[in-house]
Amino acid sequence: MAEKTLTTTSGAPIADNQNSLTAGPRGPVLLQDHQLIEKLAHFNRERVPERVVHAKGSAAYGTLTITHDISQYTKAKCLMGMGKKTEVLLRFSTVAGERGAADAERDVRGFAVKFYTEEGNWDIVGNNTPVFFIRDPSKFSDFIHTQKRDPKTNLRSNTAMWDFWSLSPESLHQITILFSDRGLPQNYRSINGYGSHTYSLINENNERVWVKFHFKSKQGIKCWLNSEAGDVVADDRESAQRDLFNAIENGEFPQWRFCIQTMTETQAAQYKHNPFDLTKVWSHKDFPLQDVGILELNRNPENYFAEVEQAAFAPSNIVPGIDFSPDKVLQARIFAYADAQRYRIGTNYGLLHVNCPRHASSNNYQRDGSMRFDDNAKGAVNYEPNTCQGPHQDQNYQEPALRLQGDAARYDHRDGNDDYSQAGDLFRLMSADQQQQLFTNIAGAMTGVPEEIVERQLEHFAKADSAYAKGVAEKLKLLA
Which residues are catalytic? Predict the structure, then answer.
């Protein structure tokens, strides 16, 4: 293969890439050294703003293979047809830490999947937990601030965390998961993934069912104790990234069972819990898991920045046959995630190869903007309607109407809501050893927290199960 000649960004060949242009051997550098200016200017701009949350991540490509027929629920082509294969990109992440944080830290893990379908890209932007800390999106930025650095000390603050949580009883279910044995995964291959939110599936008859998406690890769940994780971090801050990359390079392709739970609109109206509450799960006894397919990761990205750092996921990316729900937090994320990508990468982030549709065309009237690096639709008209053969709407893709009711107001989402029974049920499902781990992990995370905040949180534990509060209190030496 012939050697390539080094060039500037504009394509001009470079004769010397070792020495700056100076006035004599000892003289100052000249401003006209455009090669040097270009290298330094590009270097200054090599880092896009990191994600505010989920900053540190790892990703791989793979396939979703359909193994079960769910055509009675959806007309989404990527979910129809035995043996149907769809290319995917799956990004794992930690939530609270910055890009330089260690992988083996107690934290929720992000589980974001981009399906490159023939009808456009479909994103499930989920976590390794089926619930979350909040049910109203107005509390999202408040919650995230408690997980980040204190504005005065620039340190992570246990007090901020527990102050917020103790004043937000809806967080108890997720707290119980986070501080359980599953709160510190050994690697990304050994976690489950969840869409967490309720979505809807729409079939060929334009009938809707509500749906929850689940990815069950076929590698099994593997987690660290706090003491074990400390040793891992001391030895390797990129333990999960290394594990995922090496496993795929060695042909040990991780797999997940892709499953759904479905609920009819009639069942939703009668269910004991609000089915659109992000802090609640649907009982598997009431709504059993149904297998859909197998997700396998089998190819590592060739360039981390281009294919992982610039990967942009958003719940607003859906395809025909899949739609949203009245889940309040989902409704906010539909806007917020795409908007975060527009800020972080630029308004034309969807044109990047990792984000653009692979098997469908993108036809719209969006033009111009920073880094518009395609032909900008050449001379095609940029308005609609038009008589110039431009893309037009198609009523065949209209989703069924969603019946809504109620007066517009700021309703108290905590009024009359049961924030304790599911957390208590989860606690009682734990073995004695798992409960002891939970007590130890919570007590350790309460180091330095003022007593009045601890007491307030213990009251929440007690409402879930008296043994829950008693166990934490004993670890904190608050009981004789």
Answer: 54, 127
Q: Where are the domains of the chain?
A: 57-134+187-356, 421-475
Q: What is the pLDDT of residues 27-72, one digit of tens each?
A: 888 889 888 888 888 888 888 899 999 999 999 999 999 999 999 9
| CB within 8 Å of 75: residues ≥ 6 apart | 202, 203, 204, 320, 321
Mean of pLDDT over the chain: 94
pTM of the model: 0.93
Q: In this structure, which topology does domain 57-134+187-356 adopt according to CATH?
A: Catalase HpII,  Chain A, domain 1 (2.40.180)
Distance separating alpha carbons of residues 316 and 122, to the nearest angstrom: 8
Say how far apart CA 397 and CA 395 lie, in whole Å.
5
**Phi, psi for 184 (deg, rounded to 5):** -135, 80
The pLDDT assigned to 459 comes to 98
For residue 56, the model assigns a pLDDT of: 96
Instruction: Give ∠ CA 224-226-229 in degrees, rounded to 5.
Output: 60
CA gap 46, 40 in Å, rounded: 10
